Amino acid sequence: MMGCLALESGQRFLGELSTGYGAVGDVVFDTSMTGITELITDPVYAGQALILTCPLIGNCGVSFSDFSSDKPQVSALIVSELSEIESNFRSEESLKAVLERFGVPVITGVDTRSLVRLLRGTGPVRGALVPEGGEVSFEAPPPQYAGERRKYSAGSLVVAVPDTGLRRDIVKRLNVRGVTVSVFPFGDPAIFKQEPDAWLLSDGPGDPMGYDLAVIKKILDTNKPVFGTGLGHLLLAAANGARIGRLTPGHRGANIPVRDLATGKVTVTSQTHGCVVEDAPDEAVTHVNVNDGSVEGLRWRENVFSAQYRPEEETINAFIAMLRVAHAKK
Asked: Other CB atoms closer than 10 Å to residue 229's CB: what's the count?
């Protein structure tokens, strides 16, 4: 079926509706060329229509072990071409079949270069997939992620997570280091009945100011180690009084350079966010974006720190070291 991506700003981009229509959400783009399965299932993209800038998507198929969560989270997928053929020894199913099964609308044949050039100037714009000439409504709830209680047992070290969109890869990286991860929906009072060694504030979708910061402040009052990543980084900053602003168009890709101010070392990172900490105290800033100078890392106390980007092994190891010290003091 021929259709289009209709933007609230008035533009329409023609294409072919491959797996349905009707999706509404903020239209954002990601420049990654690999890790497509991880991106589509990443809770950070819940409720958002995702443009993938790589011209051919799906030719590697899908391996379910690469899922970042239980299912695809995007409200729609916008691509230039969705491959009908998959060729990879790890592939278990085609990307098109997976998207159809989970009811994710896809539009192909879109001039993604023109669309991305537009969004680079405006930032995210609300959009909807509609049949050609069809009526459109842009009414939609803000993106959110509904967490649930679950426990990933792995050892005597325990991390508690108020879930705003925890990815599976973070859980796996903690589990292999002997850390049990106890997860609760954000705001669930039962989390404060736990006796964790440390707290993890996960990534996720939406505006951090839409969350109850009293939860974060109560976590800080426990004086236990806290590590925030992505949205968790923003929540931690907001709870400490920093102002959160929006980026145009955002940092979404796998090749974003970040400088460690203490060592001068530059690391190429993966990022998926559209907000940024704007006025953190200079003494709290540990990492900055090489491209635009925005804040990428903060340390509020000796045992409270955060990263805007997906944590590297060095960051995870630093968190584990704090965790072990806290556990030894029990």
From this structure: 25
Q: What is the pLDDT of residues 270-321, one digit of tens each?
A: 998 889 999 999 999 999 999 999 999 999 999 999 999 998 888 999 999 9
Angle between helices 213-220 and 231-239 (to 10 degrees): 80
> Over the range 112-145, which residues count as b (16 or more CB within 10 Å of their CB) and which as e?
beebbebbeeeebbbbbbbeeeeebeeeeeebbb
Query: CA–CA distance from 226 to each of 51, 71, 202, 245, 300 (Å)?
Result: 33, 28, 11, 23, 10
Which pLDDT score, from 0 to 100, does residue 139 have? 76
Residue 206 three-state SS: coil
- The whole-angstrom distance between residue 273's C-alpha and the CA centroid of its chain comes to 7
pLDDT digits (tens, 9 = 90+) for 18-43: 877 777 889 999 999 889 999 999 99
Beta partners for residue 245, in sequence order: 276
Instruction: Note the Cα 120 to chain centre separation in Å.
Output: 19
Which residues face 163 on adjacent strands? 185
Is residue 298 within 8 Å of residue 280, measured between CB atoms? yes
pLDDT band of 205, cuts 50, 70, 90: confident
Label residue 306 exposed, middle or buried (CB < 10 Å: 0-12, 13-18, 19+).
buried
Q: Is the pLDDT of residue 164 over 80?
A: yes
| Exposure of 82 in the CB half-sphere (CA atoms within 13 A) | 23
Note the maximum CA span of the chain.
66
